Amino acid sequence: MTGQPFPVEAGHIMMFARAIGDENPAYTGESALAPPTFTMASAHYDPGYHLRPKPDEEWFGSGRDAGVMAEGGGGLHAEQHFEYHRPVRAGETLYAHNSTGRSWEKQGRTGRLLFSERITEYRDADGEPVVSAVTVAVVPEGPATPKDAR
Amino acid sequence: MSLSPDDIKVGETRESILVDDLKRTRIVQYAGASGDFNPLHTDERFAVEAAGYPRVFAHGMLTMGMTGRVLTDWVGTEALLRYGVRFKAQVWPGDTLTATVTVESIEDTPSGPVVHFTLRTVNQDGAEVVTGTAAARLEP
Known about the structure:
The complex is a heterodimer.
Chain A: E1 4-7, H1 10-19, E2 76-84, E3 93-108, E4 111-123, E5 129-140
Chain B: E1 13-19, H1 24-34, H2 39-42, H3 44-50, H4 60-75, E2 80-87, E3 97-109, E4 112-122, E5 128-137
Antiparallel strand pairs in B: 1-3, 2-5, 3-4, 4-5
């Protein structure tokens, strides 16, 4: 099976459900159901995920200094869409396949905004689709600058 | 748990307070569970001094996750077919969020009836922070 393996674990679902404040009993136990947005947590299993500090790499957050906003680091999450082909349960492994979707531009209040889609197909061990996720990110054009707070 | 078309009517709404006075620790908790450790959400010094924001702000996905509870409490997680949102404005520590989910239509499809929802989550000032749509399967 190709794709980035994402083992769906009961303890991880418990922590995620707590984090979103959902005490639904369906999200507990060895064969827990996963909440609808749980597949986002596959970031933990992405070895190159850029928003997790790694022991051998410089991290851009504060320490002795305030940290540095990276170029393109001004990106924000504009939209998120999920399509569910079947429920996700603890005990299975999903395989994430990433691809790039559409991209477009829009004139914002303070300049041009660049939108881009990242598509993640989560498939099961048989290659059947389980969850299709589309993330739309928006980045202001040009060098990173502090932005106005909306 | 599953609903039939008799259990749900077009125009019906459910409203729920998702969080009252959002604490920074809740945002940290979501960072840990989701794996998204962007310091914009958890590192006040970085957010203010390096990124120019007034303070840290919540992951959009925390609001989407909290909003989803109103849907899944209503139709059940297993019935969900689609769930999508736009992030309209930032959610800040101290915010109180209220979600409203409305039945827009009930559609007969070859695989059975499907309910279509619109969703709207607002802050304590009534400003939209998340809007979206969802669809769920109903029992025939």
